[in-house]
Design brief:
This protein is mainly alpha-helical. It is 70% helix and 4% strand.
Length: 507
């Protein structure tokens, strides 16, 4: 928190303020809120452990990181699982055989099966997050997925159908993660820090992909495909242990939060979260800004999931890259996306804090700008189809999607903060359809593993990006919607601080 903010929370005289700035001895002040330990809130931003909302952000980042290494593992492992190896029979005849004799349609079904389960728990994940707390839902979902990941290799060898069922169950468990995270930020994120905190947490997904692609490739090459499932599953259980004992659903439940930070969060969010939440379903389902978010989310996920599930296969089929090299190159787009998400979140909040752009303008510019560039680079990848050109185009195309996450990705918290987790659940339900449809379509189109067949896949992604940009540009909003305003709020007051980043409406 800025010094001026603290001085609004704690009414020091000018002499006290000057003395406090000069002295390193005084560390607290008795106020009507109790003893405020202001050094925690005045700590340099890099000392994130002094601010509990940043601790929540870091562990949420690691949670999404874990979630995605558990999700991506099959995309890399399946290349080795279905690769034919040279063998010699007892008569000296040479033949080629894969451990799992699956064709393109079967592998497409397996890669998409996760999303059959994932799509089913989006809405319930948002609802449960709002009702019983995002911490429990988020942590438990990932922990169960991690356990099932560990037992994947033996079950896959027993039966294809067991393997398929296991991936669907993993999708069901992970389906709650994105929606319930908005329930956490509704309690922890001050309004003009939403972009920064939410996108930082979500960027763990992309960094998980960056990590998993090359590491899984190396592990498969040197330790066998099963090692990916054992190691990544164990990592998920370790993360769950720390998440469960450290994170709380609300800041007032955290025994280590400073009084200054607690008061800052509570004052900036207001008291609306204390009211019993009722959902105006008709208004939600007929709201153009809601459907603008849904359309943008669907568009972004189409390109993202297409590349997430198919990029290693594409590089193996068309670019003739070996598995270890494929892992490194497949990770590049997600490294670019991780950087873009981090940068865009800070930039979005800066533009809003300085009042250079309104929230609506920030959301539309970041989202639509990202989609337009993604359209251009996807078309470039479709028609270049040279190793260098494709890698550059896909890296920039997927990477620039990071800016879109500072648009639609946090927009739910703008238009209806108390309903944000449910809105994310609705949006992510529909936005999960690409994870089901795209691998299946790819399996039917890419029969001969030719460059021409893969060109169609890229063109489809480019068109969907462009449609999403158009819909979001026309109908999105960054303003709280009338149906999301509680009646009790009209009795509130406006809390004003010297720092515009913390000036909020308690109306």
């Amino acid at each position: 928190m800025d010094t001026s903010v603290l001085e609004k929370l704690i009414p020091y005289s000018d002499e006290e303020t000057m003395e406090r700035k000069k002295s390193s001895v005084e560390t607290s002040k008795d106020t009507e809120y109790g003893t405020v330990k202001y050094e925690d809130e005045l700590a340099p931003s890099w000392r994130f452990w002094k601010k509990r909302r940043y601790i929540v952000g870091v562990l949420a980042f690691l949670g999404f990181f874990t979630s995605y290494i558990l999700r991506v593992n099959l995309s890399v492992a399946i290349v080795a699982m279905t690769e034919k190896h040279k063998k010699v029979d007892e008569s000296g005849n040479v033949y080629y055989e894969a451990e799992f004799d699956w064709d393109a349609k079967i592998t497409g079904l397996l890669l998409g099966s996760f999303f059959y389960g994932y799509i089913s728990t989006q809405l319930i994940g948002g609802w449960l997050g709002a009702r019983i707390g995002g911490k429990r839902v988020f942590g438990t979902g990932i922990a169960i997925t991690a356990f099932f990941t560990i037992i994947t290799p033996p079950l896959a060898r027993i039966s294809f159908y067991l393997f398929l069922a296991l991936r669907i169950i993993e999708g069901i468990c992970e389906g709650v993660t994105y929606p319930c995270m908005h329930a956490i930020w509704a309690n922890w994120a001050p309004p003009l820090e939403r972009s920064k905190l939410a996108t930082f947490a979500f960027s763990g997904s992309f960094f998980g992909t960056v990590f998993a692609m090359p590491v899984a490739g190396l592990m498969v090459e040197h330790l066998g495909w099963a090692s990916v499932f054992y190691v990544f599953g164990a990592a998920g259980l370790i993360w769950f242990f720390f998440w469960w004992i450290i994170v709380k659903d609300k800041p007032e439940e955290d025994p280590y939060i400073s009084e200054a930070e607690l008061e800052y969060i509570k004052t900036s969010l207001g008291d609306s979260n204390k009211n019993k939440i009722t959902y105006p379903w008709k208004s939600i389902l007929t709201s153009p800004p809601v459907w603008a978010i849904v359309a943008a989310h669907f568009s972004e996920n189409w390109g993202f999931y297409t590349m997430l599930t198919q990029l290693p296969t594409f590089m193996n089929d068309v670019l003739n890259f070996k598995l270890d090299k494929t892992g490194y190159l497949s990770a590049l787009p997600y490294l670019a996306m991780t950087i873009a998400v981090q940068f865009s979140g800070y930039l979005a909040d800066l533009l809003r804090t300085k009042k250079i752009l309104t929230t609506t303008q920030v959301r539309k510019i970041f989202n639509c700008g990202g989609f337009v560039f993604q359209t251009i680079f996807m078309l470039g990848a479709a028609f270049l189809l040279t190793p260098t050109g494709v890698v550059i185009c896909i890296t920039l195309g997927i990477g620039l999607g990071g800016f879109a996450w500072s648009g639609f990705g946090v927009n739910h918290l703008d238009i209806a903060p108390q309903h944000a987790s449910v809105l994310m659940g609705i949006g992510n339900t529909i936005a999960t359809l690409p994870g089901v449809i795209s691998p299946t379509i790819t399996g039917y189109i890419v029969q001969n593993k030719s460059a021409e067949e893969w060109r169609i896949i890229f063109i489809i992604a480019a068109i969907i990006y462009l449609v999403g940009a158009t819909i979001y540009g026309l109908f999105a909003s960054g303003e709280r919607q009338s149906w999301a305003k509680e009646k009790e709020e009209t009795k509130g007051t406006r809390q004003s601080y010297d720092n515009p980043a913390i000036e909020v409406d308690n109306l």
